[in-house]
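Lab notes, practical 5.
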Amino acid sequence: MNQLETDRAANFVEARRCPRYKLEVEVKVHSHSCGILVGRMVDISESGMAVMLMTEVPLGEVVELEATLPLGRLEIEALVRQRNAFRYGLKFVEHGFPRELIASTCRQLAAESSNPIR
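Output from the prediction step:
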């Protein structure tokens, strides 16, 4: 990576609103176009999560997610924002209790590890 690419990558990380934390749990993705998919969450933040899926889900689709977090069962809607190979970036679009559960989980993960994912 040249210096310009390194600087851009650093600026992108600094631009994140919420730090991401490593969390590997099974996630069910209910997609209108693909049905029910089982994947693996790889990280989470208060605004979204990254999941690994073996089936292609269209960008821009709103999906329903189910996962068991350390503090409880999560069911939430999310927008498929980006894709890189099998890794999908999902942005939470639902508010209320699910977001409170996510925020509490992120606080717990932050307390357990002083190094969020960059």
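Observations recorded by the TA: The CA atoms of residues 8 and 22 lie 23 Å apart. The mean pLDDT is 88.
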